[in-house]
Amino acid sequence: MTKRVAIFISGGGSNMVSLVQDMLSGHHPAKPVLVLANNAEAGGLKKAKEMGVETAVVDHRPFDGDRPAFEAALQAELNNVQPDILCLAGFMRVLTEGFVAPWEGRMLNIHPSLLPKYKGLNTHARALEAKDAEHGCTVHLVTPALDDGPILGQARVPVLQDDTPDSLAARVLKLEHRLYPAVLRRFADGNTARLDL
Ligand code: GRF
Questions:
Q1: How far is the CA of 95 from the centre of ligand 1 (A)?
Q2: Fewer CB within 10 Å of terminal CB in the chain, N or C?
Q3: pTM of structure
Q4: What whole-number distance in Å separates Cα of residue 90 and Cα of residue 110?
Q5: Where does 59-176 show beta strands of DSSP type E?
Q6: Beta-sheet pairing, 195-196 with 151-158
């Protein structure tokens, strides 16, 4: 049975585009049923509509810090489309245990570092700061602890002498667009073996 996938975004949604394009490319165990953004200006919303995927917006600002109320609104949108899998893709809001717990084991995220290194923000600058020889991205199952769940896949790049946070981020983002679709394909088929690109 084709798995139903909802994707949460906050910005340009380049990872969402990669996931949707792969799902729509045929012979895929999953299909996109919703792209949801936490702000109406997210560039990914237009891209999702152009690809024929249903969209929704749940702006976090009117909830004024009441996370459970914001998350109840998110869950209400999900109830409308009944997804089997939830993918966070450039989603920049922290989700509480209350939201995550019912999704545990069915919720994926992509993070721009080789976890467990550099949880949180500014990962590329931190890798450069540490003079790491390599850097990369990780797809993991989401648990209540931030950027901490079981790893489903990683992809690595060498850090170059003249790298800046922006040049490194751009190279990692290209890898994200390969890693996330590859991991989702396997995950939707019930394969949770770790994939290293
Ligand atoms: C990417 O670096 C991704 O790793 C992080 O959010 C950034 C933007 O992603 N999660 P996207 O272009 O909005 O998919």
A1: 16
A2: N
A3: 0.96
A4: 8
A5: 85-88, 107-111, 134-141, 151-158
A6: parallel
